[in-house]
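Re-run requested by the PI after the first attempt was lost when the workstation crashed. Everything re-entered from the original request form. Ligand of interest: flavin mononucleotide.
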Amino acid sequence: MNALNISLPGLSLKNPIMPASGCFGFGREYSHLYDLSQLGAIMIKATTKEARFGNPTPRVAETSAGMLNAIGLQNPGLTKVVEEELPWLSQFDVPIIANVAGSMEEDYIAVAKEISQAPNVHALELNISCPNVKTGGIAFGTVPEIAQSLTKKVKEVSAVPVYVKLSPNVTNIVEMAKAVENGGADGLTMINTLVGMRIDIRTGKPVIANQTGGLSGPAIKPVAIRMIHEVSQQVSIPIIGMGGVETAEDVIEYFYAGASAVAVGTMNFVDPFICPKIIAELPELIHSLGFDHISECTGRSWKTVEKLTHHRA
Amino acid sequence: MNALNISLPGLSLKNPIMPASGCFGFGREYSHLYDLSQLGAIMIKATTKEARFGNPTPRVAETSAGMLNAIGLQNPGLTKVVEEELPWLSQFDVPIIANVAGSMEEDYIAVAKEISQAPNVHALELNISCPNVKTGGIAFGTVPEIAQSLTKKVKEVSAVPVYVKLSPNVTNIVEMAKAVENGGADGLTMINTLVGMRIDIRTGKPVIANQTGGLSGPAIKPVAIRMIHEVSQQVSIPIIGMGGVETAEDVIEYFYAGASAVAVGTMNFVDPFICPKIIAELPELIHSLGFDHISECTGRSWKTVEKLTHHRA
Amino acid sequence: MIKQEICQVIDQREIATNIYELTVKGELVHEMTEPGQFVHVKVNNSLSPLLRRPISIANIDQSRQTFTMIYRAEGKGTSLLAKLKQGDLLDVLGPLGHGFPVDEVESCETALLVGGGIGVPPLYELSQRLTANGVNVIHVLGFQTKNAVFYEEEFKQLGATYITTADGSYAYSGLVTDVIKNENITFDVLYTCGPTPMLRALEKENRHKKVFLSLEERMGCGIGACFACVCHTGDDPTGVSYKKVCSDGPVFRAGEVVI
Amino acid sequence: MIKQEICQVIDQREIATNIYELTVKGELVHEMTEPGQFVHVKVNNSLSPLLRRPISIANIDQSRQTFTMIYRAEGKGTSLLAKLKQGDLLDVLGPLGHGFPVDEVESCETALLVGGGIGVPPLYELSQRLTANGVNVIHVLGFQTKNAVFYEEEFKQLGATYITTADGSYAYSGLVTDVIKNENITFDVLYTCGPTPMLRALEKENRHKKVFLSLEERMGCGIGACFACVCHTGDDPTGVSYKKVCSDGPVFRAGEVVI
Ligand SMILES: Cc1cc2nc3c(=O)[nH]c(=O)nc-3n(C[C@H](O)[C@H](O)[C@H](O)COP(=O)(O)OP(=O)(O)OC[C@H]3O[C@@H](n4cnc5c(N)ncnc54)[C@H](O)[C@@H]3O)c2cc1C
Ligand SMILES: Cc1cc2nc3c(=O)[nH]c(=O)nc-3n(C[C@H](O)[C@H](O)[C@H](O)COP(=O)(O)OP(=O)(O)OC[C@H]3O[C@@H](n4cnc5c(N)ncnc54)[C@H](O)[C@@H]3O)c2cc1C
Ligand SMILES: Cc1cc2nc3c(=O)[nH]c(=O)nc-3n(C[C@H](O)[C@H](O)[C@H](O)COP(=O)(O)O)c2cc1C
Ligand SMILES: Cc1cc2nc3c(=O)[nH]c(=O)nc-3n(C[C@H](O)[C@H](O)[C@H](O)COP(=O)(O)O)c2cc1C
Ligand code: FES
Ligand code: FES
């Protein structure tokens, strides 16, 4: 029996493991290392209407059990992604989740409308949470009303289900999640990076040219788990979880917290084979924990607690 | 020449290094390991009006380069702290910063009023940011108006300067900082812990009995540095920085970001001698970086950038 | 006195499946006076894992200035600990806490030592102290399965030793409490260390006896400063009074704290 | 083809102050075809440090299936790397990027190889390839100070070698560009690797020559997927076109990218 296949809005996945946006380009580099058809899905690099160069370098810095990045949404632009990258990716038997970004509402709408028509794009991931872009962006990810309205407008034009990617840099993550759910989001992806900074003690200057960057990697996993645990109990749309995933055990922890699929970001840089490795390890792990199918794990942390409370009452 | 002495409101410090609140109890345990008079100051465990037992155990869990705690403000209560712990601490030549907590405004006011009278308490640290207490607390740390009003009321009764401890779990840290500055705060201490969670994959339950806990340690340092960098440019009161400090270099990084003193929390558990070690290493490090006095380091990251911009213009 | 010292590994061996016996040398051995105390070790020099690990002192050899720990390699930290080889260095903080009171039992009286799994190790040093004092010792030691059994011979040399396995794959089958009952074991003082359900059962079944239990709790500092490891006291089970497992314990008199 | 392999350390030695020469063995050596490529190494098995470190390939020995890296132990990762001993394992991803084009210079022509500090290592493999092709090689190698000089003899065996130190403590004193000027060194092709200011100066002073530069940039993935290491192209210096140092470089023709 297949213990890993998962159905989510727009996505019929062989398994719930996928590379996170921005950590896998458009797949070309990793395709030289392994067959991309093994993956549950691929979240491609953020696409904006026009090509962008992004921020000056240095764009990355290492931190304890994590890293900072301030790529600044560098990408070849909508046309090139639709005309070159997506057709190239169509040689693999893997659904694509297109990460959509912009500085203004109109940008998001334009990208969403067109990219969602691509035959291998099965869902959009609305990136309202990129911490490395100065203009506009931040309000989309931190003001519930603005996020809701953007979600609604994108939903209107998208040919495929829309997942909204939440920023952890907010006081109340549940409020943000509910707002985008009310805006019609079909699912959530969380979390994007925490805003962080490092300073070089010899030069006195921020290590990253953009000064601040997004903190990712194992360091942030407890924050992601907490947020997914809170949000999954308050919304009825599925969550694709991410933040520091490095092992099959981490995947289970994300499911227990309330995720229905998991993306791997930073750890691709450390171990380029991490996604296929985790996919290979999951079936045995799931069975050793007493499950027949990974979907049984979703929300177990709070389902267990509920059951316990009920039992004691 | 003394390269480390620092003057802050209420505090005339031999050096800018102090253990962070909750990570050093009331000093008794560490006093068996070294002479507490070496420290710049001591931030004692949060004190509430009545004694508290705190949360059920397990209260701590390890994470990648960090830990979660949900002690739940366990402490012997105001009377015992004032009558036993503070007099005991007065044998050391070290100023005490008393961490003041509560569930309601009146609690804070009562504790602040009385504890600020103790002769060795030279400043208060208003803990409006403890993530592990369910009732009330959270609004104090996340709603600017409420934080401002509390600060004002505590200032009215306190016999010593008041530092407000900011929570990182907010969308806009500058707004919080400015609110408490407007409320009359004499300084800021930042950051408290990020709210996080871990789930045991065998039991399916949160590792911490309280479910969520506060994430501390090196993992959170980039978040702290970023927040201090932002806030220090927008307020005119000094900042005592904390979050994952483990080396003398980290101290310099905090100063560069904008801190005027630094507290060490979690790393006391890993290396109980960490504070005196850092204090011993700092003078040489400062000189090797070309400074005569550590105070020259404060805000260097943004001062440098300013200068550069100016120069280029 | 508590010391922090970089100790040297003298020997490390796997003595049962995943169970390691690690002997290290250091001056802090001179501070190790009570059986049942523990050390807090940093398994490597890195931030991963971050925290120290509490491990009981299983044997002390003052003449050689060494002490021995016995532990199960399970999670991240203990698995790394298991890789240490002779000559490697280990950062040890200790000795910590209060151990088993050996003077609660007189010469010629009988002490029953009951251990479960990785609760067995501290009983070894205890048993040596007691026998040195002329106390009769009886050991009842429970393990999961045959391959997990260790130190049977060592304990047998000190006194009567009953081994039981949860799955019946070796010696007796079942719980340590069954063995005590079925074998009609009598004693003056009971010392025990092991899983909480075992400690609870022993406490319950020996209400009117002198019983000393060694507890386990997740720890931060290990020295009493962080309030991670507290438990309620027996006389105020829902109130604010407390004991810290790391510094008031890990050994408590039965009833002293709520387990 | 890029491979990931757990290689075995054959030898590690400190060849100048804080400069280590590390030789490892693995099948991925068969993939190492161009001089000037690099590998991305994981210095240990832990999360601390998290990221791989890019290190140039300094010497390739196909017959022994080994390659050599030369690096300065400075930060967290390289300091840990320096602790590896013969027999230890090292996780290597490589070979990565595009190296120096050896066929840009003909037999009997002259190639000038200019290295600065830890930019010197990749020139060693390059110099061997060039001399094997019958090219005359001249080396100008700059170091901070006397104790930082390495591989002087090795380079001398391949061709004329000028060493200069920034503080004048050994051989020539001053910049590599001064040496080239003062010694009137002429050449057909220039290959260089070292600090950016040095590369800029060489590029500027040799506008009409064939110049190939090896760049350094902070890296995430090392294989072209993360956009960490991009630079603007020379023909569109403020626009959106770009090259990735890790996969399009690290070696570029002068003018190809903005440095
Ligand atoms: C006073 C005391 C004495 C002990 N003596 C021994 C002994 O002699 N031999 C032995 O094998 N074990 C002993 N233990 C248990 C031992 O501390 C844990 O097995 C060990 O910490 C697990 O670490 P890990 O790296 O394998 O697991 P991980 O899962 O990586 O541990 C994660 C975190 O949880 C903590 N933790 C996990 N399990 C336990 C536990 N059972 N008790 C306390 N903290 C835990 C770890 O210390 C660490 O902080 C003792 C515990 C205490 C409190
Ligand atoms: C293509 C390429 C080839 C290189 N070849 C060599 C070589 O042969 N010998 C050698 O000694 N050095 C070489 N370097 C530089 C080497 O990568 C850095 O010195 C090393 O990464 C520093 O790591 P650390 O652990 O000492 O420092 P840390 O300060 O701990 O490093 C922190 C982070 O910054 C990165 N970083 C720091 N300095 C540099 C740098 N100069 N370039 C790129 N990333 C950096 C690290 O990779 C790491 O991600 C090369 C760099 C590149 C890009
Ligand atoms: C180098 C880098 C680039 C990223 N680019 C994007 C991006 O373009 N769009 C996006 O939504 N998230 C982006 N992210 C965030 C990741 O998709 C992911 O949400 C985050 O890194 C947390 O996962 P991780 O800890 O596994 O990396 C990027 C992350 C990194 C490290
Ligand atoms: C076990 C523990 C207990 C803490 N208790 C308190 C407390 O009582 N009051 C408070 O303001 N902060 C408390 N903190 C937060 C620390 O003072 C500090 O702000 C935070 O841990 C970040 O610093 P660090 O990364 O160096 O630990 C506690 C932290 C830990 C780890
Ligand atoms: S572990 Fe810190 S008080 Fe016991
Ligand atoms: S390092 Fe990732 S693209 Fe070059």
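Saved to the shared folder this time. Chain D has five helices and 16 strands.
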